[in-house]
Amino acid sequence: MDNRCPVHLDTTGRDIHGEAAALRAEGPAVLVGLPGGVCAWSVNSESGIRRLLTDPRVTKSARNHWPAFINGEIPPDWEMISWIAMDNMVTAYGKDHVRLRRLVGKAFTPRRTTAIRPRVVQLTNELLDALAETEPGEVVDLRERFAYPLPARLVADLIGMSEEARAETAKVIDMMVDTTVSPEQAQAVLAGWRGAMAELIAAKRREPGEDITSDLIAARDEDGSRLSEQELTDTIFAILGAGSETTINFFDNAITALLTHPEQRDLVLSGRASWDDVIEETLRAESPLAHLPLRYAVEDIELDGVTIPKGDPILVNYSAVGRDPALHGDDADRFDLTRPDKAHLSFGHGPHYCLGAGVARMVATVGLSSLFERFPGMELAVPRGELRPLPTFIMNGHRSLPVRLTARSSAAPV
C-alpha cells in the first residue's frame, strides 16, 4: 500500500497483448499498480514465470504470507477481495495445499473425463441445434449462445448445481473477474458467491447426488479435520469459476482466431492441421488468463537481476508467456497452426497445474470440431477491431462475439 508503482495496469483490459509486451520490455518483473492503490510485481518472461511457478518460496496464501492483508491494511471492500479471501486448494500453502489438491484431484481422473464425454456431446448438440434455427443472415452472439453455456452448464452439472442457480451465480463470477468494479460491488461479489455455495452445500447434504459437491461433503463429514466448512465452500466455488470462465474465453479466442485467419481454418477443416493444433496454438497466442492474482514472496526472491522482497504480492502475466520472443521468435504474435513449438503455460505449471486440463481439452475438441462441422462457413459480423474486450486485466476475451452462420447440414454431428 504505497506509491512505488511506476506502471498501473489498465483495469478496462483494452489492449491485453500490447500491455504485456510493454511490461516484458520493462523487465522480467515490474511493479504495477492494482485497484485500491495496491502494488504488485508483474512477472513477464516465460523463463521467469516457469521458475516462479515451481519455487517453494512462492505462495498463494494471503492469510499466511501477505503482511498488508494480515495487518488489516487491505480493507474488506477492496476491489479484488474475492481473489484473496478464498480458503481452498488455490490459496492453500504447503501441507494444506497437498491435502486439498488430493481431495479435489479425485474428481478429475481420466476415467471421469471419459465418463462425462457423452454429456459434453449432448450439450454441444443441443446448443448447435438451437443455433441452426437462426434465420439466414441473422447476427448471433456466439459467446452468449455457445462459448459461454457449454462449459458453464457442464461444470454446473459436475458440481450438482441447477441451471437456475448456475445462471444466477454466473453474474457473480462475471463481476469477480471485472477489474472495474467498485468497492461496494466487490463486497457484494464475495457475499454473493459464498451465499450461493452455502445453499448448494445445504441442498446436497439433504439430497446427495453423483456429483463433486456430494463427494467433497462426504470426505469432510467422514473426518472433519480433512476439509473445513469454509474450505468446502470455497473449493466448490473455485471449481465452478476456474472450470467455466477460462474455457469460455478459450472458445471465444479460438473461434475468433479461426474466423480471422481463413487460411488457418482451411488447414484444420481440410485435415492438414488437427484440433489439437488449434487448442495448443490458441492457448499459446491467446491465453484465456491474462494477469492472474495473487501470489506472494515467502522470502526475498531474485529473478533475473530483480529482487522481489519478502511479503510482496505477485501477478503472473500469462498473456506475456506464449508471445515471448525469447521462446517463440520474432513471429510470436502470429497465430500459426503449423508452428512446431506451441509451448505455453496457460494451464499453469508446477504444484498449481490445472487439475481440469484433461476435461478442458476434451470439451474444447468436442465443441470446436462440432461447431465448425455444422457451420464451416460462418463469419464474423463485424471487423475484428470492433470486438470489445472484457473489462478486466485478469481474463482475455470479448464481451460478445457476433457472427453470421452458414449451415452445411441440419443433421447433428455424431
UniProtKB/TrEMBL annotation:
A UniProt-annotated Pfam family: p450
Keyword Oxidoreductase recorded: yes
PROSITE patterns (UniProt xref): CYTOCHROME_P450
Entries under InterPro entries matching the protein: Cyt_P450, Cyt_P450_B, Cyt_P450_CS, Cyt_P450_sf
Record SUPFAM superfamilies: Cytochrome P450
Keywords: Heme, Iron, Metal-binding, Monooxygenase, Oxidoreductase
Keyword Metal-binding attached: yes
Superkingdom classification of source: Bacteria
UniProt xrefs under PANTHER family: CYTOCHROME P450 YJIB-RELATED (PTHR46696:SF1), P450, PUTATIVE (EUROFUNG)-RELATED (PTHR46696)
Entry's family note: Belongs to the cytochrome P450 family.
Protein name in the entry: Cytochrome P450
The organism of origin for this protein: Actinomadura sediminis
